[in-house]
């Protein structure tokens, strides 16, 4: 028994699923995962976890793991040695770079991988391969929130902590479903609402779990949130409820902003959003009367044509009501992946170096160029949307992608598939043979978080360390080690022996991480950036100044973009999103038998009215068609949706049920985030039940 006990190991790790960033101890015996044990000292979650964090780890031991590099030979993939695979990648990338130029290659990073890995990947793209064509999946989700915040308050991150959300007087959730996408955070909101008198308002197309409990639930017409936000902000100003001294002391552009709101009257808002004026007034009053307002938003806001503008309107409302820089207030875009915040922070973005220093700034390039011993490209690179377009135009010839299932999660899948088929050379690095890997020339086996060390940054800007629990399976390797091996084959001379050395380099170069170190992050310790050189971190942003040279925030006028109209043939509105049990498209959670047993397929939510009208029973097989493709899925009749609005869960198991067969390539004007949530379809019943 003592022997057996000795083999049981407890290791601190950080959940690999969502942006809440729960940390806990994981108990293992050899490769067997015995249990997950949350600890009181975990900063984001204490003793809470959700089903994914607690039971979602079996994918690590899946027999489907990639354990050897694979090289395409005609229609087949054959196993290869690391040397063989990396030599081939190095020679192909070099050849394409020499023939077509550095900017003919694109690099897609991973929000599931560590800060250190994202840092090294952008260094590989920029310093070794000479291009800023590097992006990550925040382009699909939260880039508009980042852009809206950078415009108004200067920093593209949550302005406070999860504790602030917990202690706000009013939590306003717009276009997000935290009970399924950020479960532990939602539990805290539910508790504050029930036990501490916190008010809760939800604006959404679906009556989700938080909406059921909310003091006020508003269901506007699709794609009209900006009108609703501008109208209540105008109403607050007109009533003299604005935070006048805060605005005078801390905010620029007030006069011009007020003038821009002229058309957003309650009448106009009622007509556009379908929400009665009394209800709009009720929401405005709740904002006005609350001791501190936190606004949380997700993809329901950011995946639209006017997404950056709606995010900006949220920040404008917070500024007008003085809800920045104090506890229990502020802006909280909810980060989806465990490390989407960190992937952006550490520079896998086409216009930003690590720590959000612009690539266009000659001083910034000089600093990094000097440290890395190279001259860096000045022109911002392509984002992932532009990369797909450039492949179709014949200008982008090769791609290197890691830990990202682009062939399922990018919009307009048929368009993306045909782009991948045109590539001269494609490297995919992942823990499984993903759908995207089908298009690759070389597939490299990576190691998941339990098999490596590193840090993740959660939605609060909180950097947390995790430790190696298991050895990498087969010949798989941590992503950072793969980048180093490849960089050295490409002529670099990298000698990192541990991720802590990568973090130390980032901390030396990027001022916002100045005092971040592995020693300070030991165990359950964490640091919220910006971190000063002495290690002092920042829980609450903007307490005395905003992140602009004069220290003042900027009200930024925004106008409404009406939703895309595909014509009357497509008579139903289709929304989509996550569900609690599955993470995203499901590449990880579909390899967890317990979760698959509970939820095996996606489904389509159909309102009782529409079901009645079309003769659809629960379980009927229906076909949805958009101008871009078709999907077949089972219907679930429920009153969470209304009228002609449908909702499709986005976990997909087959080529036939991928929601992105239906989405278009239209996108937010500023950030190119696809308008996944603005979709119209037609529906036919294939099988009554
Ligand atoms: Fe993991 Fe998010 Fe669940 Fe926490 S709430 S256990 S971070 S999936």
TrEMBL record:
Any one Gene Ontology molecular-function term assigned to this protein's record: 2 iron, 2 sulfur cluster binding
Keywords of this entry: 2Fe-2S, 4Fe-4S, Iron, Iron-sulfur, Metal-binding, Molybdenum, Oxidoreductase, Repeat
GO terms for biological process, alphabetical: formate metabolic process; respiratory electron transport chain
Cofactor: [2Fe-2S] cluster; [4Fe-4S] cluster; Mo-bis(molybdopterin guanine dinucleotide)
Chain ranges of the 4Fe-4S Mo/W bis-MGD-type domain: 8-64
Domain of life: Bacteria
A GO term from the CC aspect: membrane
Family from the record: In the C-terminal section; belongs to the prokaryotic molybdopterin-containing oxidoreductase family.
This protein's name: Formate dehydrogenase subunit alpha
Source organism of this protein record: Ammoniphilus oxalaticus
Organism ancestry: Bacteria, Bacillati, Bacillota, Bacilli, Bacillales
């Amino acid at each position: 028994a003592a022997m057996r006990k000795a083999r049981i190991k407890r290791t601190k790790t950080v959940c690999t699923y969502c942006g809440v960033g729960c940390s806990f101890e994981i108990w293992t015996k050899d490769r067997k995962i015995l249990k997950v044990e949350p600890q009181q000292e975990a900063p984001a979650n204490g003793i809470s976890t959700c089903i994914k964090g607690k039971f979602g780890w079996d994918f690590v031991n899946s027999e489907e793991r990639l354990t050897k590099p694979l090289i395409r030979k005609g229609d087949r993939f054959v196993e290869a040695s690391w040397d063989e695979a990396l030599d081939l990648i190095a020679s192909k990338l070099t050849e394409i770079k020499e023939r077509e130029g550095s900017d003919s290659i694109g690099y897609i990073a991973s929000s599931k991988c560590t800060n250190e890995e994202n840092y090294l990947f952008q260094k590989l793209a920029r310093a070794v391969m000479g291009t800023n064509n590097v992006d990550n999946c925040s382009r699909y989700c939260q880039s508009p929130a980042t852009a809206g915040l950078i415009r108004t308050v200067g920093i593209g991150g949550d302005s406070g902590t999860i504790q602030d959300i917990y202690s706000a007087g009013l939590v306003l959730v717009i276009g997000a479903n935290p009970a399924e996408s950020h479960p532990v955070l939602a539990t805290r909101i539910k508790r504050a609402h029930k036990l501490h008198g916190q008010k809760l308002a939800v604006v959404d197309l679906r009556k989700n779990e938080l909406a059921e409990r909310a003091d006020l639930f508003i269901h506007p017409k699709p794609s009209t949130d900006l009108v609703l936000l501008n109208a209540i902000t105008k109403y607050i100003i007109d009533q003299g409820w604005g935070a006048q001294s805060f605005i005078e002391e801390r905010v620029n552009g007030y006069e011009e902003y007020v003038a821009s709101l002229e058309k957003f009257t309650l009448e106009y808002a009622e007509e556009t959003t379908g929400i009665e004026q009394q209800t709009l007034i009720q929401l405005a009053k709740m904002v006005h009367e609350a001791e501190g307002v936190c606004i949380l938003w997700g993809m329901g806001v950011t995946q639209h044509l006017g997404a950056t503008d709606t995010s900006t309107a949220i920040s404008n409302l917070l500024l007008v009501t003085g809800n920045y820089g104090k506890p229990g207030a502020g802006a909280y875009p909810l980060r989806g992946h465990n490390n989407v915040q960190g992937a952006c922070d550490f520079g896998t973005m086409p216009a930003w170096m690590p720590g959000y220093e612009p690539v266009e700034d000659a001083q910034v390039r000089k600093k990094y160029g000097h440290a890395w011993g190279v001259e860096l490209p000045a022109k911002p690179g392509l984002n992932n949307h532009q990369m797909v377009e450039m492949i179709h135009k014949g200008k982008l010839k090769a791609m290197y992608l890691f830990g990202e299932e682009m062939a399922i999660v990018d919009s307009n899948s048929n368009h993306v598939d045909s782009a991948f088929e045109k590539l001269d050379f494609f490297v995919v690095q992942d823990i499984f043979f993903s759908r995207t890997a089908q298009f690759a020339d070389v597939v490299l086996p990576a190691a998941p978080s339990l098999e490596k060390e590193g840090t993740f940054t959660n939605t609060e800007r909180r950097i947390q360390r995790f430790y190696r629990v298991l050895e990498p399976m087969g010949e798989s390797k941590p992503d950072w080690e793969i980048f180093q091996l490849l960089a050295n084959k490409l002529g670099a001379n990298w000698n990192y022996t541990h991720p802590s050395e990568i973090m130390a380099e980032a901390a030396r170069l990027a001022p916002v991480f100045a005092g971040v170190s592995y020693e300070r992050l030991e165990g359950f310790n964490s640091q919220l950036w910006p971190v000063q050189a002495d290690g002092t971190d920042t829980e609450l942003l903007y307490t005395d100044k905003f992140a602009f040279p004069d220290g003042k925030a900027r009200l930024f006028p925004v106008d409404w973009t009406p939703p895309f109209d595909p014509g009357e043939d497509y008579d139903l509105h289709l929304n989509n999103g996550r569900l609690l049990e599955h993470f995203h498209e499901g590449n990880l959670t579909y390899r967890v038998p317990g979760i698959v047993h509970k939820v095996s397929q996606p489904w389509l939510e159909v309102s009782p009215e529409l079901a009645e009208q079309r003769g659809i029973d629960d379980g009927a097989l229906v076909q949805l068609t958009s101008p871009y493709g078709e999907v077949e899925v089972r219907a679930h009749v429920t009153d969470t949706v209304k009228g002609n609005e449908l909702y499709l869960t986005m976990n997909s198991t087959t080529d036939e049920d991928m929601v992105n067969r239906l989405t278009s390539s239209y996108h937010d004007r500023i950030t190119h985030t696809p308008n996944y949530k603005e979709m119209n379809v037609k529906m036919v019943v294939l099988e009554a039940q």
